[in-house]
Amino acid sequence: DIPAAADTNTVRSNWPADSLAPGLKKLITDFNPDLILVCKDFSAPGKSLLLEVLLKDLNGVVDEVRKSKVPSRAFQSIALNGWNVESIAAEHDSSDGFRLPIDRVDPDRKKTYAVMGGEAMTLYRSLARQRAEFKRTLGTSYFTITRQTPVSDNILDVQTRSLKNQELIRISREVEKITNGIIHAKTLNDRWISQQRKSLLRAIAMLTDSVDQLIPRTFEMPLYERRLLLQWKGGLERLHNSILGVRATYSLSESILTTLQLTYLTIDSVTGVSKGGTTEILFPAVSHGWAFNERSQQSFPLKLHEPYRLLSPQKLPFHLPAGLQGLDQHTVDAPLYFFIVHRGTDREHSFIYRKMMPMTYAPRFSAEVLTPVVRLMRGENVVVRLTNHSRDGIRDTVRIQDSVAVAPGVVFRVGMKESVFRDTLRLSSVRDVEEGTYLLHVDIGGQIVSQFAARKFDASVNPNRRIALITSFGSSATAEVLRRLGYAAISIAIDSSFGASLSHCDVLIIDNRELTFKPELANRIKELDTFVRKGGRVLVLSQDADAFDRTPLVPGISLERSTAYDPETPVKFDTTDVILNSPNRITGTDWKDWIFEWTPNKATLSDLVNTRVPVRVGYDDNPLVVVRAQEKGAFIYANLDFSHQWINVHPGSYRLLANLLAY
């Protein structure tokens, strides 16, 4: 991720063309999209440098696919794995573009696409704060920025330009007759179907037979003709099944599987089956290592309400744990198909119906460290999660037994499939080692199952400070860094007791982006002002510009969203200022290895009375730390991206926070 970049060269240093373009190529060849939607860069207040670079490389990859001069999307020469992208569309604030049918219910998952998008987002903890933004953009529109051909109204996408095969030309004309009739009818209503049913079924059956006869000869055809045949094949089958009213419902005992694991598939109902003939269930994954009823044959007679036994293969592409295995996958699950094949008494009433089952694959046992970077100190928490995806119960002891640090073992038991054990290992013994980063191991039964980074550094604090924190999140990075500094911060509610609660603290911290999630803070400015005048300190961490400017918590400051302050931007600081000297002396090394961005905002000071700025951006003097004295106390605005540094356990950011709290 690149939240900030001063120019496209900075973006390119993080997204080199020789790695971004191949990654996009792999995504296209793995996923085979017809349409690519490009999300708006919500972090950019105006023109997005990230989108500029991304779209340049994306268009380059798509152009590479389109090597043929053939104008139609159905007849493109395919350079990458036999696929081309027909359109790229970019998200836009205007409501005049086309919208996606996100409220449509997916027939396989029985959920709307909006619901599935929300569920997918919950898998990524980093998106927790963006869920409100996600809901706000559900009705967003898109504008096409590159298109191969105009959108066709033809249901089967019939296009006959550049065809040379006479049989394909004949089939295309027949397909066009059928689709034109359907378009003219506007909708497949019951009355129209009953009137045209017999003739439609006969025509579709004849065309399907013609397509089937050509498919074995596809190796003789250009790539665009092969794809056209497959489009016709799938489109004719779907239309045929729709007219017959073919539907199938199923139940699956397990949708999360590991290798060589059994699941039971039960067909609950099948509609649209004519009297007479035979009906089978076909499971083509047998050819990829699956076993069907302990056999290698692909088809069996269809029996409703009778479980079929499916055994997974020896090798699977794992999706779980999402934070480990899932990083190599483009989707959160994998499709597994079965087919209902009915051979009726006549060709018109025979059909092949395909059904997709979304599956998720995982190793038999997984161990995750949910705190991948910690501070190396006694009492530090290392959170582990153990998941059993097998049906074999596991009982053992998980511990940290390393030359640098030790955590006593914890006995765990995960006795059932998909059972999860989560606990916290606490470092009880830590060697006196030099400052730096150490890789520590988590082991079970003497075997290393995971690892994490531990950073050793010193950070002095004023132990007499009473700290209070206003935060919307129980897993706040601010709360965690306070714990690591040795502070037991109290939580303050924004209610009628707010003013009285302030008397129990010396420093009040308003967490990152808190004004966005608790706008009612704006009603407490008078109480905050009174608290500061009596000698209190209010430390306001970085806020969203629009929320802050509506009600500035620190007088005389306004904010403007900016993505120009990447970590390569130099900073300058006043080495004589007390806030950079006590209790820790902040030096140039404390600003090294900063990640993500210096700040998300450009700050403007309208009132410099009793105000000083000990830390600024080097090239434009953008204030990064603002101290505004007010009688006996002070407001401090930290215009810094502290949260990512604290998650990464950056030593300099810890020492700077300790100084701000001690001031």
Structural features, described:
The protein is of the alpha+beta class and 663 residues long. The chain is 26% helix and 28% strand. It is built from 15 helices and 32 strands. The protein has an eight-stranded mixed sheet, with helices on one face. The chain has a six-stranded mixed sheet with strand order 15-22-21-17-18-20, with no helix packed on it. It starts with 7 loop residues before the first helix and ends with a helix. Residues 68-82 and 149-160 have low confidence and may be disordered.
Residue share in helix: 25-40%
Number of strands: 32
Q: Please tell me how large the radius of gyration is.
A: 31 Å
Q: Structural class, from secondary structure content?
A: alpha+beta
- Beta-sheet strand percentage? 25-35%
Distance between the termini: 34 Å
Quick structural overview:
The protein is α+β, with helices and mostly antiparallel strands. Helix 2 (17-31) crosses helix 3 (49-65).
Summary keywords:
663 residues, alpha+beta, eight-stranded mixed sheet, six-stranded mixed sheet, 26% helix
Secondary-structure topology with pairs:
Blueprint: H1 8-14, H2 17-31, E1 35-38, H3 49-65, E2 87-92, E3 98-99, H4 113-122, H5 131-136, E4 141-147, H6 166-185, H7 190-214, H8 223-244, E5 247-252, E6 256-257, E7 262-271, E8 278-282, E9 291-292, E10 299-301, E11 308-311, E12 334-343, E13 351-361, E14 365-369, E15 373-375, E16 381-388, E17 394-401, E18 405-414, E19 419-426, E20 429-430, E21 436-444, E22 447-456, E23 467-470, H9 477-485, E24 490-491, H10 498-501, E25 507-510, H11 514-517, H12 525-533, E26 537-540, H13 545-550, E27 557-561, E28 571-573, E29 601-605, E30 611-617, E31 623-630, E32 633-638, H14 642-647, H15 651-662
Parallel strand pairs: 1-2, 6-13, 15-22, 23-24, 23-25, 25-26, 26-32
Antiparallel strand pairs: 2-4, 3-4, 5-7, 7-11, 8-10, 8-12, 9-11, 12-13, 14-16, 16-19, 17-18, 17-21, 18-20, 21-22, 27-29, 28-30, 30-31, 31-32
Helix pairs in contact: 2-3, 6-7, 7-8
